[in-house]
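Most newcomers find our protein records easier to grasp once they have seen one. The structure tokens are whole numbers drawn from a learned vocabulary of backbone shapes. The record below serves as our worked example for the rest of this section.
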Amino acid sequence: MSRCAVDNTLKRMVVGDFQFPLGVYPVEEMEPKPGYTMVFEPADGDADGDFEEWPDRYVFDIVMSHQRLEPFCRQLFSLFKGRVFPILDVLGRDDFREIDPYIAYDLIGMDRFLECLRRYRDFFYEDGLCGFGVMTEEPFFYAFVDEHKIVTIRAEPHMKERLESLLRAFDLELREDPAGADATAHEHRGVLTSTDESLLTFDQIVEDLRDEWRLLLNIDPTNNVDEDGKDLGTTIWHCVARFMGDEGRRRYAEVILSAESLEEAERMAMDAAEALPKAPPPDDADLILVAIDRVAPDRVGELQIPKGESGEPEPSRIISSRWLE
């Protein structure tokens, strides 16, 4: 069974009775304040009020000491029944986007979601580079633990009393100013150790979760913009493609290219990977992209670009492709 483990040289920050996750902690003095806020949000709709995206809901933002986070989440996730849409946020390597937001567009069994939480508990509950959660549409119910390990819940009004009862059971009170690590200057860090070859790395866990939860990158694939919405035009992309054959055999290929949108980069990278010599035949292996990150101009020199090949983004083209050992 694949697994992960925390680097046991890391020290947990504790202020009074409040424990911070190993992966996110304040870097200046502060007073942690466990508790929660609650607001009502009316249903969303289009300009004519004909289309309802999300129904009326209550939104809870919850801060708690770390030792209570996992037990609380066990109780919270037990309220979800049947099949769900998992969510995963990770601090990625794209130079123009801080967070890689993944979501499942196909329903999966809640048991599969919970099994991954058990398998990679240190990754989920300690690491400061990831957030995770789950949602359903009927009824609308959303729960997410962000990279600060702050919990956000969105739920229809009929669930309000049940959620308030759960919060009381963990001695959490309604307050105007709950404060965790994100309330002041703070640091994020990865917490996993890789000293044992049997332990998975951060990237390997993300790859596994994308398979297990059927996650897709939740961004508009038709354009190429930064976090502020600025159009970037054509950029350099670093892509890693995975061929998965029978009995889980894996082989990886790297493709460096220039493209003007995510969908164009995905298509070009897949075609280039399939064209590599000695590639597994299509009926023997599934091909997916496990990484597709834009590279800023000042970092293009870090890529392994063949001599004589330009690292300029114009025009859209394949710059290099090779098998990774």
Notes: The longest helix spans residues 262-274. The helical segments are 66-77, 110-119, 121-126, 160-169, 202-213, 262-274. The chain has a mean pLDDT of 92. Residues 224-324 form one domain.
